């Protein structure tokens, strides 16, 4: 990295959000904001709104009484952490005055300004913030549906699927093959599949050293590719094979009964198959018209307000947010910024603008970390674009101890983020 280091990016992102807390309180009556989504983006927005102005009535709609993070879920699959270590409740938000409403949000009625819940209840809002995450596109690949996910888990939403894949990996026969299918862009957490392959290799190298990993990719290149491939040669020589789209032609069909992943040129048979399907914005976004005729939400990237549905702001994995990747850190930073935008709009003021940051760590093993960071600023077309000369990958050539330090930074980042948001 040239301008902003990975550790500086964490500090700067906190400074940016914290530095805006001096915004004046609402001059008029009690405003209502409903936040949909209990992950990094929604929790960040809800907590920040309460910090900006406690007179704002903030309701957070969550579909469960706890949230398991996708970040660090690969460590659960590799047996290095229990699910409890990545699962958090919402008591911390309730303690600062956020109203927690458990239930599935099915639709946002912008004309009436209400969020409609699955049980028929309606939550009125002056403005809504939506960070609902992704929907898995079952049925896109013949043979892969919700039932198939019990045989070929995706584990791309942390929870029961994470534990299922962990248990299948632990039960894999000696010398078996772990097949992973990765979709084409865009999808949640671009480097996530390759971190997973790395940590599965770390597990296998200790418990099943003659096993193999095959990655059947829906694209030819991937995030942090040179760093991952260098690490695989160093740590897991001969164990991981990456098959790019150009060599396979892409997955055309899967057979859960035989654990086969079929392409035009070759059929890959696994003892364990981790099939990550294509994705789109969560159902509540599509049901509310936020995706228009597409699969992702289009927003004004200066305010996060939908370009289609007024008074509704969308962030995180469900939205296209300029050059920012779909990551937990991105969603968290966007949530904080969006909170300040919404508070300003409720006051009738011009929304603030700032620099947004993202840092994405990946673990090749618990003691070997790599990272990429980005800095994003609005251009004249109101698009969040990467700042030239900023960010970048960690270097290929490093001094002794550097990869261990990056792994430590990854753990620090996770502890800081989850403590700030959920505790």
UniProtKB/TrEMBL annotation:
Entries under Gene3D superfamilies matching the protein: FAD/NAD(P)-binding domain, Flavocytochrome c sulphide dehydrogenase, flavin-binding domain
Region forming the signal peptide: 1-27
- Boundaries of each FAD/NAD(P)-binding domain copy? 32-148
Record-annotated Sulfide dehydrogenase [flavocytochrome c] flavoprotein chain central domain positions: 162-277
* UniProt keyword annotation of Signal present: yes
User: Which InterPro entries does the record match to this protein?
Assistant: FAD/NAD-bd_sf (IPR036188), FAD/NAD-binding_dom (IPR023753), FAD/NAD-linked_Rdtase_dimer_sf (IPR016156), FCSD_central (IPR049386), FlavoCytC_S_DH_flav-bd (IPR015323), FlavoCytC_S_DH_flav-bd_sf (IPR037092), SQRD (IPR052541)
Keyword vocabulary terms for this entry: FAD, Flavoprotein, Signal
- Location of the Flavocytochrome c sulphide dehydrogenase flavin-binding domain: 353-418
Q: Which Pfam families does UniProt cross-reference here?
A: FCSD-flav_bind (PF09242), FCSD_central (PF21706), Pyr_redox_2 (PF07992)
Top-level taxonomic group: Bacteria
Any one Gene Ontology MF annotation carried by this entry is:
flavin adenine dinucleotide binding
Its name, as the record gives it, is Sulfide dehydrogenase [flavocytochrome c] flavoprotein chain
Species the sequence originates in: Aquamicrobium aerolatum DSM 21857
């Amino acid at each position: 990295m040239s301008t902003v280091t990975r550790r500086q990016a964490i500090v700067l992102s906190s400074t940016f959000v914290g530095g805006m807390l001096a915004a004046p309180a609402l001059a008029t009556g009690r405003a209502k904001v409903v936040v949909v989504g209990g992950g990094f983006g929604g929790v960040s927005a809800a907590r920040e709104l309460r910090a900006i102005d406690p007179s704002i009535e903030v309701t957070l709609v969550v579909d469960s009484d706890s949230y398991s993070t996708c970040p660090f879920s690969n460590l659960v699959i590799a047996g290095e952490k229990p699910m409890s270590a990545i699962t958090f409740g919402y008591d911390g938000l309730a303690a600062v005055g956020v109203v927690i409403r458990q239930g599935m949000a099915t639709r946002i009625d912008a004309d009436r300004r209400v969020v409609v819940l699955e049980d028929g209840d309606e939550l009125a809002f002056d403005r809504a913030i939506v960070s609902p995450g992704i929907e898995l596109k079952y049925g896109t690949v013949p043979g892969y549906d919700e039932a198939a996910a019990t045989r070929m888990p995706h584990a791309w939403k942390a929870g029961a699927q994470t534990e299922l894949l962990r248990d299948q990996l632990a039960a894999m026969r000696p010398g078996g093959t772990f097949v992973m299918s990765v979709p084409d862009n865009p999808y949640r957490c671009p480097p996530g599949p390759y971190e997973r392959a790395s940590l599965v290799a770390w597990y296998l190298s200790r418990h099943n050293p003659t096993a193999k990993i095959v990655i059947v990719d829906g694209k030819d290149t991937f995030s942090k590719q040179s760093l991952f491939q260098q690490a695989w040669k160093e740590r897991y020589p001969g164990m991981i094979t990456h098959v790019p789209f150009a060599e396979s032609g892409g997955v055309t069909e899967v057979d859960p009964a035989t654990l086969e992943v079929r392409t035009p040129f070759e059929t890959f048979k696994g003892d364990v198959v981790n099939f990550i399907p294509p994705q789109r914005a969560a159902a509540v976004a599509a049901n509310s018209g936020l995706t228009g005729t597409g699969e992702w939400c289009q927003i004004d990237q200066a305010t996060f307000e939908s370009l289609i549905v007024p008074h509704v702001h969308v962030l995180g994995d469900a939205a296209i947010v300029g050059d920012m990747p779909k990551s937990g850190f991105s969603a968290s930073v966007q949530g904080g910024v969006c909170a300040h935008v919404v508070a300003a709009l409720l006051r009738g003021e011009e929304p603030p603008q700032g620099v947004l940051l993202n840092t994405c760590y990946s673990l090749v093993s618990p003691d070997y970390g790599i990272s990429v960071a980005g800095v994003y600023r609005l251009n004249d077309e109101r698009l969040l674009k990467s700042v030239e000369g900023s960010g970048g990958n960690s270097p290929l050539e490093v001094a002794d101890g550097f990869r261990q330090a990056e792994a430590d930074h990854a753990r620090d980042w996770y502890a800081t983020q989850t403590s700030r948001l959920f505790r």
